[in-house]
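Hi everyone,

Forwarding the result from last night's run.
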Amino acid sequence: MRYTFGTNDIAAQRLEKIGEIFNPHSSRFIRKYASKPVVSALDLGCGPGFTTHMLFMTLNSREVYGLDRSEEFLERAAERFGHSVFIKHDLAGTSLPLKAEVMYSRFILAHLSDPVATVNRWSEDLCENGLLFLEEVEDIKTDNAVFKRYLEINRGLVASQGANLYAGELLSKGKYSRETVANESFELPITNSQAAALFYPNAVNVWEKENYVLNTVSPEERRAIAGALSKILSARDNNSGISWKLRRIVLKNSKEDPYFGMFI
C-alpha cells in the first residue's frame, strides 16, 4: 500500500488538521454503536497517531494499537501518544497481527485497489461480537472552481495508482461477510479556509513529485491553483463553500451467521 499524500512533516501537519476537523464527528459516530466498555481497539492506518488518540479518548480502552506501514509516522505517533502501542504493518498485505473488539479506519481504503475485499479480510480478525468502523469519502460537493479542479486532479492521481479517492461509493454497495450494523451517509460542511489548509500542502508538495500530475497539469496551472488556495487561506475565508459526504459502515462479528436468515 502506498499513501499518495506522503509521510513527511508537511503530510503529518496536514493529517493533524484533518483530525481537528473530523475527529469530533468520528468520536460521536463510534460512541453511537460502541456503547459498552472495550478492552482492545485497533486503528487501521494510524498515520502519526491522531486517529489512534481519538480512539483512546472515545473508548477509554486500556489496549489501543495503531497500525501503519510508515516508520516515520509510527515514530511520530509513539513519541506523541505514549498511551498506545504502534506497530508496523502493511494493511494491503497479510492478515492483521492481532485481534480486537473494535477496529477503526478512516480515509485509508481510498488508497487500496479493492476496498470491499480488504474490509472483509480485516473483519476476519474481529473478536466475537467485535465491531469494525469505516469512514470514507463518498463525494465532495463544491461550486468553487479552484476546489473543483484540485479535486479533479487528485481523483486522477489516486486513480493512476489503482485506487479510488471516493472509496465510499464502493463501500456503500459492498457485500460483506460480517453483519452490517450500519451503512449510512454523513455530510460535513467546512469553511473555505479549512479546505484550503487541507488542499494547499498537496498542491505545493505532493504534486511536484508525482509523474501523473507533472504529465497532465501544466506548471502554470499548478502555480495558479496553489496561489488561489494560498489566497483563500490567507484571507481566512470562513464561508462554507464545500462539504464532505462520508460513507459510514459498521460491521459486527456476530455469533449468529449473517447468512442464516437467507435459508429460512
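The domain at 9-141+163-190+243-254 is CATH 3.40.50.150 (Rossmann fold).

Cheers,
N.
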